[in-house]
Amino acid sequence: xxxxxxxxxxxxxxxxxxxxxxxxxxxAAPGVSVTVTQDTFSEGDGIVTLTFSTTDTFATDVVLxxxxxxxxxxxxxxxxxxxTLTLGAGQSSVTQDFVLNDDDIVEENEEIIITLTDVSGxxxxxxxxxxxxxxxxxxxxxxxxxxxxxxxxxxFFGGNASVSFVSEDLSSVTNGIFNDITGEALGDVAQSxxxxxxxxxxxxxxxxxxxxxxxxxxxxVGTVDTGLLNPRYITFANDKGYVTNWGDGSNPDDDYVAxxxxxxxxxxxxxxxxxxxxxxxxxxxxxxxxHQGGFNQNNIVSVIDAATNTAGAPITVADxxxxxxxxxxxxxxxxxxxxxxxxxxxxxxxxxxxxxxNTVEETFEFSQTxxxxxxxxxxxxLYYLLSGSVFKLDVSDTALPMTAEIxxxxxxxxxxxxxxxxxxxxxxxxxxxxxxxxxxxxxxxTESLDVSIIPGAVYFNGAFSF
Length: 466
Description:
The chain has helices spanning 2-16, 177-182; strands at residues 32-36, 40-42, 47-54, 62-69, 84-87, 93-99, 110-119, 131-137, 147-152, 162-167, 173-174, 190-196, 199-204, 209-214, 220-224, 231-237, 240-245, 256-261, 266-272, 277-283, 286-291, 300-305, 310-311, 315-316, 321-327, 330-335, 349-354, 359-365, 373-378, 381-386, 389-394, 406-407, 413-417, 420-425, 432-439, 444-453, 455-461. By secondary structure, the chain is mainly beta.
């Protein structure tokens, strides 16, 4: 059988191939390749032209056969391709057009792969350039794809938690986007929000739930509404969600981290932890939980193995750790200390933890009456709020800064991103708050935007940048 195929292919080559005029040289067989003018097209570009070329011509017409594959869907993302075309006798090339469909669906980049598989029954006429990959980029966008999301707690028992969207150019603010898109109220006290892929998980504390939406369209995906009790913050590891819970505030022994099955949005298990779990961050499959103490005081960071969902030995820091940031291979933990009204006032403290050993390797102590908060990071610079002023500490510094970068602010929360500081001011906690934006290159106030009631956190969505 193999000899018969070789014999037929040899005859075919003789019939199809036009020899060179130089009889002294053995001519090389023509090689057919496929090319396209560019590798990437927008779906709105319309016609795409494939060119099939040969290094030499054939004596008779030949049929070119090609396969179409890739993530793009033929007939939906682009017009159907027949898979064959004819290269005429004596012709050096032939083209095949198809049209990209310009839909209004927001989608990821998709690929079309065209592979030449046969030339009139002979694969020997196919050159090494027998395939092209075309990337189709989407020209549609979600309403909230690029910009700032401001999460608002709303009033306790008011049921008026909300999310605002600030456009990337800061020219517009749209309040209440969750309510508008879903047609439902977000709930009572939106505590925090975190992203996992295209989804946003909004932890609604007093409603005992986590709302899940598409982070770019804010269309509802589902709700985790059982198995949570005073939920606070969420992170993701090992394909699971991890939510800190205070439990019953009057019971110091029922606090836990809920493990969320992200597929069916249910609490699949819980991890018991000491009182007052708050901020939670992940370093791979290792989770770090700051225990501020709930309605009491605590002074530890729990370490949880997400592979086994077990808590190891905690790390002792200062009283009431309130915020954490991962920088390189170190975890920075800011503790506010016990406030004066507790009758046991203690100083704030900043601890640097070595993640290789989970031990405190450096400590920065504040004075007895100083209670810092809202630790943020931008590159290798840490920022925190203390007594209405913003201070900056580089990770290589050996002492706390003596001079503030920005003073006279009343932030309810703040974060930094790409050289800018974003602080939210809750004002009187009854009327609309504001988003204040500072340029950290000169510490100047560049924007003050009116948002909604009790703004509590700022998040950056999509390809947001200035």
